[in-house]
Amino acid sequence: MNMMYDVEKIRADFPILSEEIRGQSLVFLDSAASAQKPRQVIDRVSDVYETSYANVHRGLHYLSEHATAAYEGAREKIRAFINADDVREVIYTKGATDAINLVAGSWGRQNLQAGDEIIISYAEHHSNIVPWQLLCEEKGAVLKVIPVDDEGAFHLDDFTALLSERTKIVAVTHVSNVLGTVLPIKEMARLAHQQGAVIMIDGCQGITHITIDVQDLDCDFYAFSGHKLYGPSGIGVLYGKAHLLEAMPPYQSGGDMIERVTFAKTTWAELPHKFEAGTPPIAQAIGLGAAIDYVRSIGIAAIAAHEQDLLNYTTQKLSAVDGVRLIGTAAGKGSVISFVMDCAHPHDIATIVDQTGVAIRAGHHCAQPLIDRFEIPSAARASFGMYNTRDDADRLVASLEKVKEIFAR
Ligand code: 7TS
């Protein structure tokens, strides 16, 4: 354990962690679905509404100028956080799903033709499968899927075998939300570019545990949601290389994304506004800026090291529980643990551990093809955030013993 990492101090920043759930202290092991929020984010959002709220980019009055500065200031924080070259490359979206749909709906519609190929991986969330399927249907393009082995690992030669001169875009997750597997995206970007394809990374589970440098990765697009990064829901980000975004048509249209409208012809606003039609999630964007400040004050590397410790500890403990099978054991994996038990369905597991105040996720995790691949009905999943402790892991393991007792009866 890292002695410098003061998890109790961090926990004190998250008001919900002192709530009692079913009469017991909360053990929150579902941060991969959505993370809890620190006081610093909650306060920043209320502060916007209490002292400085107005619509952005429109008004010439004090409050609007103030809100615009904070909203655009948050964009700069995001730029620095992912080391984008230019703040115009940071597009606010509703979330990762919205960001991926933007790439498919704008770049995809513009650049794909019948017979072209899109490569995804077996471990994609539905939000990085279905938009590409719809695009394939519309364009007569073909979806190719990188296989995964029984440990949950991906192999670069399987990827290169799928790459061809017909590949137009590679759209893969950075980290699997079910297996925890980290994909070698920097190498994949290099290989995709060699074939003249672009690469989009679904960074939902990467941004929270890995220091992201989009220039070093040389990815063309990187998408993530604010709510998994300890920020508000309803806000997300699409990073895109400026020259690609500049050449892309608008995705949605309306106010704020125009330069000049006449009934005869309309021209578009400059980046990033071209892709931000309508009144945006103002307080949410500012809240995401506060979340990034908070995360940076602790440090992604320190958070990741803490979570790795929990992952190793919990993996060891869970492996020792009779009848537990772990799903996803690839080397270097991130801090989610999916599992099934001989004695109980994952939904029953989640319901019973919930009775003891322990929140885990169960189901297909919006990754049905992956669940089918492992020939399981669904999976239970514990996922860690910066505020979890070994004690949380012990509470989970103790609850699983209870599951066994109940189903052994
Ligand atoms: N991509 C990945 C890898 C995800 O884990 C998720 C959400 C999404 C995309 C979609 O994000 P959204 O914010 O646009 O909805 N993952 C999960 C999960 O694992 N459990 O609940 C949601």
Question: How is this structure best described in words?
Answer:
The protein is an alpha/beta fold and 409 residues long. The protein has 14 helices and 17 strands. The longest helix has 21 residues, at 62-82. The two termini are 38 Å apart. Ligand 7TS binds next to helix 4.
Throw out a few tags for this protein.
alpha/beta; 4-stranded antiparallel β-sheet; 2 domains; Aspartate Aminotransferase, domain 1; binds ligand 7TS; Aspartate Aminotransferase, domain 2; 7-stranded mixed β-sheet; 409 residues
Gyration radius from CA atoms, angstroms: 22 Å
Unreliable segments of 5+ consecutive residues? none
CATH superfamily of the largest domain: Type I PLP-dependent aspartate aminotransferase-like (Major domain)
Strand proportion: 15-25%
Helix content: 40-55%
Helix/strand structural class: alpha/beta
Enumerate how many helices there are, as a single number. Answer: 14
Ligand inventory: ligand 7TS
